[in-house]
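Appendix B, record 7
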Amino acid sequence: MDELMDEFELADQAVRAITQSVVLRYRTVGVLTWALLHQIEAEVLDEAARSGEHDQAVLNMMRAPAAMVYPRDDRPVSFTGHSFLPIVFSEVKDAWNRLH
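Structure tokens (predicted):
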């Protein structure tokens, strides 16, 4: 179990760093929309997977679960009414708020 937690922590640190750099690419966009949030999530996880340093199953635990129905349209992101905030979504929201 400790090994899985160590791997999860390393993946979490990588996702944080990658998220910051990906969000920087979108710094000229004024509003974080649901469509953009999903796009950034995919870019972050793809980049983390391409590094080859993180188990795909661990990265998938950081992704928004398919069972949670988050919008995918161009409305501004609001987590009001959502009881669960996926790890990558949280990182994107935090990085976005720091940059905007």
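Remarks on this record: The longest helix spans residues 2-25. DSSP finds four helices and no strands in the chain.
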